[in-house]
């Protein structure tokens, strides 16, 4: 029996999120179904770095699983390809030690959120980029507003209010906002962990700043208020991507096995 | 009663092509349903520059329709937005003279076909870019192979064999092949008219040249053979976009009303 770590990408549009739920099509469900097929019906489970919600995409989700199959690392992605639906893909598979754990061993994660700002929506982006209808939008204010979030803070203001976790203290290693195409902008957040809906609430608040419903300084004020009601709305999930999960000194990149 | 010309975009993924068919979801069907709603149930029809097949997209399809509604040009797109599904969009609407005809008055059309060449498919592009699995691909040969197609020719070799049209002579004003992103390439064809599956068969033949199953010179030989069996396969429609339709001296651009 060997333990394997797999980096996977999926288009979240047609999934009810990551986690198995009865009667729903989920990423975990499809992945386990495929893995079970590769194991001739032996019931297989996978453990992910964390869940993603409905409509949320992944470029570099990481899972681990155990297998008796003697398949070389480089062959696994092709094997998965024969059993997985077209909206998900195993990008790379690596042999890891028997105690590797996709969730507990993750040291950092990167999420990206894509925004399109303008008067016209784009039919081709409706599942992949969040559209903000605006004539004027202060991108520089958005960029500046993210600065106070970097570091270790209690992020209660940016956490879904019904969440039950012991501590809402997390560390953001990086938070940036860059233009990626005409009219398209991307938020990047790298942190040691993320609260439920944290990225989507930060983005919703930043959009209020870009649209000048809030001032740049309000982000810092809201952070320290530790009050979900002070922050902006939770933006829809289809602009959000789990981009990368990092383990120890070794980064896992979405495009390959490094 | 006034005649209007509308430029529309649609994601062809969830449509059974342009033309109304009983029991199928089509672009024309959804557009006429929306227009009928805007007219309080009065049965409305639209006439397009031409049909597109299932899975084929449009950035600049053009239609005309007649209406008693007193809506200014700039307001029409917003009105359509309230009644159309999210995978189609009216980009601009212009008042035209009463004899304007979207099909008969078109002087040229531009189609683009997007290709991804590499060892890995991309889950996010599966409905929008045709993936060619290849280690080696001669892009320069593809580019050169298109040259003999430019001009006025009998394109019988690149026409679905069951097509019943009087003449298979068409004029290609331009045919090019350029890189648009990492691993992504785009064919552009501008012509006075296109035979059924013409672009998809030309692309299928060009892919054979890129993969070195055919030589660059074979494109010219196949063109002059006027024999569909000599050409390559009809590639899938999801890489194809009706990009622009031109009328007289006035170009219609997908992004605006010029």
TrEMBL record, chains A, B:
One of its GO terms (molecular function) is tRNA pseudouridine(38-40) synthase activity. Substrate binds at residue 111. It comes from the Bacteria. The active site is at 53 (nucleophile). It catalyses: uridine(38/39/40) in tRNA = pseudouridine(38/39/40) in tRNA. One of its GO terms (biological process) is tRNA pseudouridine synthesis. CDD domains: PseudoU_synth_EcTruA. Its EC number is 5.4.99.12. Keywords: Isomerase, tRNA processing. Belongs to the tRNA pseudouridine synthase TruA family. Homodimer. This is tRNA pseudouridine synthase A.
